[in-house]
Write a structure and sequence with these properties.
The structure is a homodimer. Chain A is α+β, with helices and mostly antiparallel strands. Chain A folds into 2 domains: 10-148, Nucleoside Triphosphate Pyrophosphohydrolase (Alpha-Beta Complex), CATH 3.90.79.10; 160-213, Arc Repressor Mutant, subunit A (Orthogonal Bundle). The first copy, chain A, is 24% helix and 29% strand. In chain A, β9 and β10 form a beta hairpin. Chain A binds a DNA duplex through residues 163-165, 180-183, 185-187, 201, 203-209.
DNA sequence: GGAGTAAGTGTAAAATTAACACCAACGCCG
DNA sequence: CGGCGTTGGTGTTAATTTTACACTTACTCC
């Protein structure tokens, strides 16, 4: 069990993250254009090597910060991909995460530090992806949809206070189907996780009560 | 992104597996007594290094075969643990799996190839575990219980054909609470995944219809 | 002040889940 | 061979949860 007992090369370990956000009423993912071979010019999930002294989560957060400019994110480990042939350059095991970022917490993508071009893509309009990244993305989407039903992660995609209608829109966009307004409100409110505030939304129409997620567990870094 | 581009040491990568079985009407896990430091003499989850040319799943299956003598198993990736300090000897990232083995598919544990002593422990009577293995085990148990509710994995713990009562017992043992017999049967049968056979159970009492899991997806190796 | 649009609200039917008790079929033993 | 002990097998009702569905309110802009 000791790394020093046996003398063989270890596999490389990377982390990758599917970063979802909602922009322009669409579910979008952050992708990076690869500047080097293999798959030069293809789009790929942001990610990179895990340093020896940082945890997996720290590695993801660092990469997200550098490559995507994402500041406050919900982060969850997705799956570890380790097929020997998944990277043509050699053995690379990747621990995939999925992340949710509220649009308000995004710096502009083009501000990425390295030369790589980063861009948001709508899920309905995805380019071909490098490596097994399409498979990873599909898995992430499935997980996101599943967790929406029994958890509170949707709140990571919204500002601190929001009208119920906006929350419903998030659900509808992610699940890609319309929801009944009254049933949605009944159910969400019955969970007891939302707190109405005194604030009202502005804008052209009837002002909406803004709600707050109690004990917001969104991780910031 | 290339393993050869940067020159630093990689973390070591291991796989570990929580192997569950049901023996003596109890949920049990396979543990291995460590023969070397650190944690020499402690009990640990079976596992080992991933070879450069084998997939993560293949690595787990190999280890299970060698250390636990498990032949036909349900195998599912659980979580990847990568805290820098989780192993005192250096950076070791472990991909944890959980496995289910039907008692009938078990060779005796003492037949393990290396000198390490392997043994089954009831979940109600666990020794202290090495490393962060207790945390891994707790996570595996939670996952097993959760999946029992919405999946068919319980069948991996049973022989090919079995009476409904035995299936119910498996549920009760894992969930650690009694279930209503009629409701259980109604629900299980309404899923349409079981097929009654012509076989009947023998034994001292009224013979039971044996059921078969349609499209048994248990993985064998 | 009227048009347009998003906010907000309740009820009835359908489906699912939960609670609950007795008879049947076998082996064993006396 | 008949009764005892034990496990197999079955239905109904009440409670809860989920679904379907339509109108009034409050604001801005013109």
């Amino acid at each position: 069990m000791s790394p020093t007992e046996e003398s063989y090369t270890y596999p490389a370990v990377t982390v990758d993250a599917i970063v979802f956000t909602i922009r322009q009423e669409q579910l979008q993912v952050a992708l990076i254009k690869r500047g080097i071979e293999p798959f030069k010019g293809s789009w790929a999930i942001p990610g990179g090597f895990v340093r020896l002294d940082e945890s997996l989560e720290d590695a993801v957060k660092r990469e997200l910060n550098e490559e995507v400019g994402a500041d406050g994110v919900y982060l969850e480990q997705l799956y570890t991909f380790g097929e020997p042939e998944r990277d043509p350059r050699g053995r690379v095991i990747t621990v995939a995460y999925f992340a949710l970022v509220a649009a308000e917490n995004l710096r502009e993508l083009t501000a990425a530090t390295d030369a790589a071009e980063a861009q948001w893509f709508s899920l309905h309009d995805l380019p071909p992806l490098a490596f097994d990244h399409r498979q990873i993305l599909d898995l992430a989407l499935g997980r996101l949809r599943a967790k929406l039903e029994y958890s509170t992660i949707a709140y990571a995609l919204l500002p601190r206070a929001f009208p119920l209608t906006q929350l419903q829109k998030v659900y509808e966009i992610i699940l890609d189907r319309p929801l009944d307004k009254r049933n949605f409100r009944k159910k969400i409110l019955s969970l007891g996780l939302l707190e109405p505030t005194d604030e009202r939304s502005g804008g052209a129409h009837r002002p909406a009560t803004l709600y707050l997620f109690k004990n917001s567990q969104v991780t910031f870094f």
